[in-house]
Amino acid sequence: xxxxxxxxxxxxxxxxxxxxxxxxxxxxxxxxxxxxxxxxxxxxxxxxxxxxxxxxxxxxxxxxxxxxxxxxxxxxxxxxxxxxxxxxxxxxxxxxxxxxxxxxxxxxxxxxxxxxxxxxxxxxxxxxxxxxxxxxxxxxxxxxx
Length: 145
Description:
Blueprint: E1 8-12, E2 15-19, H1 27-47, H2 49-68, H3 72-102, H4 108-143
Helix pairs in contact: 2-3, 2-4, 3-4
């Protein structure tokens, strides 16, 4: 049987301190979690050019969805792919921030971390583009028939 006790790890003057206390659940803690999430979104929106570009592309894609009156399943495809892109961009931003925090000098592993995080965004972008083509190209072709 698995124990449900969690170990809380805190950093105190550079050392890890462990305790067997469970984190207390409260509405205030949940609200703080939402605030931290929105702080992260705000930071990424204000400081990451690619995130702003992706938000603009999503606005365009949503407008196309409304204009072409796409089906509910096409909406799911469209919105899920957009969310995957935004999630990849947020992970990329966090990885870049951690790498920059750890070292300001060139390091081959720092380059690998940043480049692979960027590659994840690229894969998400290309997958979404392919899915959006599947959704919208037939609609565009039907305009010319």
